[in-house]
Structures are given as C-alpha cells and as structure tokens.
Amino acid sequence: MGKLDGRVVIVTGAARGQGEQEARLFRAEGAQVVVADVLDDQGRAVAEELGALYVHLDVAEEDGWRAAVAAAKEAYGHVDGLVNNAGILRFNTLVDTPLEEFLQVLRVNQVGCFLGIKTVAPVLEDGGTIVNTASYAALTGMAGVGTYTATKHAILGLTRVAALELADRGIRVNAVCPGAIDTAMSNPAQLDPTADAEQMSRALDELYRKLVPLGRIGRPEEVARLALFLTSADSSYVTGQPFVVDGGWLAGVSVI
Ligand code: NAD
C-alpha cells in the first residue's frame, strides 16, 4: 500500500530539483503524477522514466494552467493534489533591483502560486491537498534576495487564506519552507557540465556547517518527504501552516 494510492497530483517545476524528487516519491507511493515545467526535454524525460504525464506549463500563464488541468483530467479522470513548487531566485539588494527583475520573480513565484490555487482548487476532489513551496526566507529576512523573500512571504499569506476558504470542502493547504537545499538554485554547478557539482556540494556543506545546526545543506529528497506528509492522509488534521525543513537554521543563533 502506498500513501498516495489512487491519487492524482500535479507538481510544478518537476523537471529537476525538489519538484523532481516530489514527483519520484509520489509516484513510488502510488500516485499518478503530472510533471509540469517549462523545461520540456528534462520534464519529458522525468515523466517518461516515472510513467507520469508531462505538461508544458509556465505557472504565470493562466491559459497554461487551464490546459494542464484539462490534460490531467483527460489522462486520469480527476485531480486530488497540487504542489506549487516552481520558483526562481535573483540576487540583488532592493535598491539595485530593476523593476523588471522584481516583476519577473513576482510573476513566477507569487502569481504562479496564486494561479495554481485559483485554477486547480475548483476541480480538486473534496479532501484534496495543496502544498505551496515557500522558503526559510518566508519567515525571516535575507539580505541580497529581497524580491524572492517578499514573494515567499506572500506565499504564506496565500496559503493561510486558501486554507480558510477551502476548508469546507476538506481541502487542506499548507506550505513547505525549505532552508538551503542542494539543487541547481543553490548549486548552479549542477547546470554546468564542465563543473564538478559534487565538489560544489561538499563546499556548500562546509559553508552551511557554520550556519546550520545540523551542519550541512539539505537534500531535495528531504523536502519531498515533507511534501509527501502534507499530501497524504498522515496530515489529515493539518491545514494553513508553514512547515520548516532547514536543519535548524531558523532556530536561532549560537554563541557557543
Ligand atoms: P530548481 O531551480 O532546481 O527548480 C525549479 C524548477 O522550477 C525548475 O525545474 C524550473 O524549470 C521550474 N520553473 C521555473 N520557472 C518556471 C515557470 N515559470 N513555470 C514552470 N516551471 C518553472 O530549484 P529548486 O530548489 O528545486 O526549487 C524548487 C522550489 O523550492 C522553488 O520554489 C524555490 O524557490 C524553493 N526553495 C528552494 C531552496 C533551495 O535552496 N534550493 C530553498 C527554499 C525554497
């Protein structure tokens, strides 16, 4: 028995990173999975390997969401879950951030999450689930990534309001708040075939050994296990909450 037997779950940004690991784990737990991304070749390859459905989806495009939901229903008949995982990061101080860049990050992270809720919630089966991907940076400030931080704070607002508005249908809405996770977002060496991504992972572990109580960067599989908990019946009385998966980074600072 899998924890998601019989359920159909859409995962955005599932061509790589945390979304890919969520797709893998959900499939292993018995779900039918819709892999949605803008990276068509990678997304198709993941879907093919898993026996999942790939759909091209730019999460900021409302028509794309309608088409993705239609494709999911045509393939599997119903939709029970959504993981709003797609996201982008840009480094800049607030005063140096061009408006274009602010709007680009807002469009993917915040508008994408909003459109996911708006489009998928009406067709979700009663008792369905939505997991939004916020961040450590949704719960505290982080200099140098102000636009990203603002959008991730906003995702918690969307999560709480959606939980309230959908509770009468038994639909639960929660957020994962990862700390630093070893994906292309934190470790761009993963995208460079000439770079040694494993060596970079070890360098990141060394960096986070000083910052994070558990002494290392997180792995995308560790976020996927939290998303599984929030998508399965194991979390049946849990809604409207942020869940931090950060190796203790947010617990505070140590003076010893
Ligand atoms: P990643 O860059 O490997 O994956 C992001 C995925 O989103 C990619 O597959 C990308 O193609 C997809 N994507 C980007 N724009 C899209 C769009 N407009 N429409 C559809 N898909 C789009 O990074 P990741 O770490 O796997 O990121 C997943 C989520 O986790 C993001 O929301 C990110 O903000 C969040 N997060 C990451 C970290 C970290 O340290 N890696 C920490 C906290 C939160």
Outline the structure in words.
This protein is globular. It has a seven-stranded parallel beta sheet, sandwiched between helices. The protein has one domain (8-181, 219-242): 3-Layer(aba) Sandwich (Rossmann fold), CATH 3.40.50.720. Strand 2, helix 2 (40-50) and strand 3 form a beta-alpha-beta unit. It is built from seven helices and seven strands; from the N terminus they run βαβαβαβαβαβααβ. Helix 4 packs parallel to helix 5. The relative contact order is 0.14. The model has no long low-confidence stretch (mean pLDDT 97). It has helices at residues 17-28, 40-50, 62-76, 99-120, 146-166, 197-211, 220-231, and strands at 8-12, 32-37, 53-56, 79-84, 124-133, 172-178, 242-245. The site of nicotinamide-adenine-dinucleotide (NAD) has 30 residues, from helix 1.
Indicate the multimeric state: single chain
How much helix is in the residues?
A: 40-55%
Give the CATH H-level superfamily: NAD(P)-binding Rossmann-like Domain
Which fold name corresponds to the CATH topology?
Rossmann fold
Number of strands: 7
Strand order of the largest sheet: 3-2-1-4-5-6-7
Q: Which regions are unreliable across 5 or more consecutive residues at pLDDT < 50?
A: none
Biggest sheet descriptor: 7 strands, parallel
The total count of helices amounts to 7
Mean pLDDT: 97
**CATH-defined architecture:** 3-Layer(aba) Sandwich
Assign the structural class, choosing from mainly alpha, mainly beta, alpha/beta, alpha+beta, or little secondary structure: alpha/beta
C-alpha Rg (nearest Å): 18 Å
Structural shape: globular
